[in-house]
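Researcher: Checking consistency across runs. Here is ATP-dependent 6-phosphofructokinase again:
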Amino acid sequence: MKKIAVFTSGGDAPGMNACIRAIVRGAAYHGVEVFGIVRGYNGMIKGDIIPLNSQSVSNIIQRGGTILKSARSKEFMTAEGRKKAYDKLQELGIEGLVAIGGNGTFTGAEIFYNEFKIPTVGAPGTIDNDLFGTDYTIGFDTAVNTALDAVDKIRDTADSHDRVFFIEVMGRDSGYIAIQCAIAGGAESVMIPENLTSVDEISSILQKGFDKKKSSSIVIVAEGDEEGNAQIVAKKIKDKMGENLDIRVTTLGHIQRGGIPTAYDRILASRLGLGALEGLLRGEKNVMAGVVNNQLIYTPFHDTITKKKPVSEDLIRMVEILST
């Protein structure tokens, strides 16, 4: 394999640039020509593909976001769109791809291989940490630390005003950010999609705190919780516990996606980027590079897409015990 291309797709995650850098410099080391596809599958369809070299990725390891941009592509979901993308790759002689992204990215790559036999190896880039086949995904550690910084600041004002704060963090289908923020931030409770915690349970936890003369409380809510988002949950709690309860809601939103990646994310992204590249050069295809128990492994896209990565029961239990 003499020519490969790298692209980022789906939601951006801190550390994606470190991953791109590792792929490009790894390709240079192995004597492989590398291209960058701008704006993911959209750029592949439009032929927005640029040559990259070691100088192209200088001074980006510390930057958040992605220098290759990211976009979701409805056109790539069609056979016609994928044919256009294939033709653009053929024009440049590109023989393989490294895709940095999540489930949607890998689903598209698998379909693309089945139709046109262009092999792809993925690197898991998503702050949600919801991909089977790796202990941690690129961007998760930074997102947790960003959210935790906000939780710490909110606790100061909650304590000053004797308030209950419901803080919503990202995680439509995954409670990983929420559970780690709850433990590290000393939250009284956490609500995540993987573990149903009812409004009655939250009310009971808060009441027990008040009975012990606790004057303020923090509840972390993953945006995908079954009881609803933080605004909905807070209203249900207020309706149940009375108007005198001073409740505030903070939704952290996209602040969790940006910012300077942590050292952990830079190292993880570099390891996964190089691992994905070298796997591709060895003939791996339709797999995602991941790190499990500190070992680099490759997991079939089908498994990363279909298998769930559960939140540890030990972590859920920790929140309950440590909040008493």
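Researcher: Does this match what you'd expect to see?
Model: One thing to look at in this run: The mean pLDDT is 95.
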